[in-house]
Amino acid sequence: MTDVVSGLAPELAGAKKGSGEVPAASAGERFTSYDVEAFEVPGGREENWRFTPMKRLRGLHDGTAALDGTVTLEVTGAAEGVTVETVGRDDARIGEAGTPADRIAAAAWSAFREATVVTLDGAPEPVTITVTGPGADATAASHLQLRTTPHTEATVVLEHRGSGALADNLEIVLGDGSRLTVVVTEEWADDAVHVGAQHLSVGRDATLRVTSVALGGDLVRISPVVSYRGPGGDAELVGLGFADAGQHLEQRLLVDHSVPNCTSNVLYKNALQGKAGTTDAHTVWIGDVLIRAAAENTETFEFNRNLVLTQHARADSVPNLEIETGEIAGAGHASATGRFDDEQLFYLQSRGIPEDVARRLVVRGFFGEILNKIALPELRERLEAAIEAELSITGV
């Protein structure tokens, strides 16, 4: 039987309490479940979905997607210190990092046949994991878990490519005292849709560094959730997105500080360029940080910057900071959205630099802070070249 929540707008009458369709008073009260039927079918007016173009989700949200396609997952660079396993959903490790918090993540959980578990035990070389979509007009679900053993250090590059629609759950489980650096790229074909939930669980005195780069795809919506299992955890999430005409890039993150003496730092940058007569280029960034009553001596900061290069582009940015204790080391959040700086352009042109080159230099500088965090030269250069190709599309 469905509980009816009183006082709601008519379109939400009959929504389940805590289902995610009714706004929660606190991020700590958000509803989670492995059961897809525990979530109401979103219509697009709900807070969690109001920025997402529902008609472009290929049925991932309402149960009409077959999710019977095949996703190819290839692990390269796996040598000493790396174990790759294919397991069923009955493996006790699956779900350790977190529980789905929306209907699509729950659908992906219910639909995947086998999960891939990659255990990193002192891997000396970077490990590359390439996820290839199910193909044009196909839909699929997948599940990947990355694990580190205590007091180890590793680097993983997670690449997304190909066509089709993918709903997936990514789990990252850091052992105590370990350090993991992850670079996630969204380099999809123009038709692709990717809706992903990231469950990031940080152990005692563990360090997580995640750099996300979103360039391709028709619609990409990623929802990272950071949780801490012990004091001393340190998480940094940085990312960039470049949205062309018609692209929708969305990041919805939650950093949940529930234990003392942990830190987090979040920085995302988006650039947008549209084109007359097309669907707007659109980026969405929702940044939630929750500091619970028990999380004393927390230090956290989150920042989102958006650079609008042309007309016919839209950036939505909503930073939220919720603090339940006054005993913190520091907390802050900020957001800024602006158009191309004509003064910078004039300065460069006055020194003999052509306008098109000057515009490229400004955008490169805007993204440089993020790209410089990628310590793998070949990968960084490839992504820089991809951004340069994006800039050439409208002659920016």
What does this structure look like?
With 396 residues, the protein is mainly beta. The chain has one domain. It has helices at 103-111, 342-349, 355-371, 377-393, and strands spanning 72-76, 82-87, 115-120, 127-132, 139-148, 153-161, 165-173, 179-186, 193-202, 207-214, 219-228, 234-243, 248-257, 263-272, 281-291, 299-308, 313-323, 330-339. The strands form two sheets. The protein has a nine-stranded mixed sheet, covered by helices on one side. It is globular and about 60 Å long.
Strand order of the largest sheet: 1-4-6-8-10-12-14-16-18
Distance between the termini: 55 Å
What is the averaged pLDDT score? 90
Number of strands: 18
Count the domains. 1
The main sheet comes to: 9 strands, mixed
Task: Kindly estimate the percentage of residues that lie in beta strands according to DSSP.
Answer: 35-45%
Which of globular, elongated, flat, extended, rod-shaped describes the shape? globular
Helix and strand composition category: mainly beta
Low confidence ranges: 1-21
Query: Helicity range of the residues?
Result: 10-25%
| Helix/strand order | EEHEEEEEEEEEEEEEEEEHHH
Tally of DSSP helical segments: 4
Task: Give the C-alpha Rg.
Answer: 21 Å
Topology:
Elements: E1 72-76, E2 82-87, H1 103-111, E3 115-120, E4 127-132, E5 139-148, E6 153-161, E7 165-173, E8 179-186, E9 193-202, E10 207-214, E11 219-228, E12 234-243, E13 248-257, E14 263-272, E15 281-291, E16 299-308, E17 313-323, E18 330-339, H2 342-349, H3 355-371, H4 377-393
Parallel strand pairs: 3-5, 4-6, 5-7, 6-8, 7-9, 8-10, 9-11, 10-12, 11-13, 12-14, 13-15, 14-16, 15-17, 16-18
Antiparallel strand pairs: 1-4, 2-3
Helix pairs in contact: 2-3
